[in-house]
Amino acid sequence: MRKSLAILVFWLAVVFVLLVIIKILSSSHQDGLIEVKINDTEVPKETSVIENLEATDTALGKVDSPADDFKIPITVAARSIVNEYEKNEIKADLTYKGEVIFVTGYVFDIEKRFGKVVVLIEGEDWAHVQCELQESETLKAANLIKGYPVTALGVVSGKGILGYVNMESCILYPTK
Fold first, then answer.
1. Is the full-model pTM beyond 0.70?
2. Residues 6+ apart with CB under 8 A from 84
């Protein structure tokens, strides 16, 4: 009998200790939410999981990167994008403006405009794709030859005054 009484007292003590621990944990966490500090930046308790993740990223010094919204650039022939802009500039802007794309075609001209290196990729008749290159691409532009195939990666900025389809921040990928 004494042994069973000792076991009962033991289990009552265990339950009591567990209840005390639960009470301590629940009183230090308002509504079951945990207060978090990262690099001395408090992550708010009253926010959603997504907001907490964003706050945690901010506290850790992480920022949104282009990779977060990364889309694989499409490849468009220079003649094709020029034709699309000629047929309907509004529709073409909705499709391409602000998008990073690859444009393929043949070098029509290499020149400097307003201090920027520009490569014209052959389009239709007098309309071409005008690629304003990043400064780091100057040496590649110097090695281009008119009439040779080329691919450029850049941001479409729309149709220019001269009827060219303009691209900015371009990087060249000469092809053989």
1. no
2. 91, 92, 95, 96
